[in-house]
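Revision sheet: structure tokens.
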Amino acid sequence: MKDLVIILGAGESGVGAAILAKQKGFSCFVSDAGSIKPVHREELNALGIDWEEGKHDEVKILSASLVIKSPGIPEKNELVRKIRGKGIPVISEIEWAYRFTGDSKVIAITGSNGKTTTTALTYHICKQAGLDCALVGNIGYSFARQVAIDPKPWYVAEISSFQLDDIVQFRPHVAILTNITEDHLDRYDYQFRNYINSKFRIAMNQQASDYFIYCADDEVTVQYINEFNILSNPLPFSMRKELLQGAFIKDQEMNVVTADEKFQMSIYDFALKGKHNQYNTMAAGLAASVIGLRKDKIRDAIQSFEALEHRMEHVANVRGVEFINDSKATNVNSTWYALESMTRPVILILGGVDKGNDYSLLLDLVKEKVKAIVCMGTDNLKIHEAFGKDVAVMVNTGSAAEAVHSAFKLADKGDVVLLSPACASFDLFKNYEDRGKQFKDAVKAL
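Predicted:
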């Protein structure tokens, strides 16, 4: 047997990392301070992988030769500090999986907003064009599980800043950075620069034969890009200017221009509507183009893509009131994009676990489009302070059902009830999916 690998956290990424470690002949041990889901326990038992829950065996953990840390565990965690103090290498599951990919190539997507949609669309284009690929990372299977169970020549991976914090060798052939806005500042000592540095790590190992796709209209990205030694081919996308290389929209036409390919497509043919989705579509279209997919296949896939659950998802029309589930909007900027795309009066459901949010970014759109705010969280004080002077009606609720009922009472025919919380969901829900599901169930029960 090889050296002892410790996996901290037994969620999807942790269990995937353990499966891969076991398959590659490592001795491994999974430790979770919380409880492990029964389905994951069964998987670990079936493979003969040792695990513990509700505690950490520090003596065993500190004897590891390598620790694979769940992205949910912060650096300031006391056990992590002890591990670092002993000089034991700590990596993310993304890094672990990458070390066993061989000649396979990765298209990796990160960003504060739009990364899930961009990842799903990129994967859809690749699949439709006949590429043998898998969807991994924060969406789909864990990267390590996929590498262990069903390796592919191509992986399309959604990657968070937390996962990028613990990479060493990870090198995507195509890296996409959708944008950078203030998010997760609680994990970065409330220093925006730390978070910016984290996002740019996606390109840190890229070489001259790789591609770095980024938004030329994103002020933060453009301000900082030259401070990083990026060796790969830069491919910007923009709505504001024509580009010699990259993607841009002019006269309602998307133009994708790379060294080997050039094609156009009307934005009216995009399956995804809204300005923010035009950015996501340009990024995905560029990625598909640089890896050599045929332009007619790219066009067809962009037209046939279906929107994701919990991301601007139409739920129902009830007596002339439309309900939209945007539960995946876990930060202020996501909610800004959602409001920006609204064309009718909005009853906005906001709230949850605040991650250091600056609600002033929403104020102009709220004044213009929102007639009432329904707060859904255990602490709504910051929301009341931010919007109380400008929104006549604000109510507090303590569940998805209560929020839906309150919003429906406040809505008139022709209005939209928009769940776009701008916050994490852990106060009242398991995660944003649980929040979105409870919202949809409550709407269907009206």
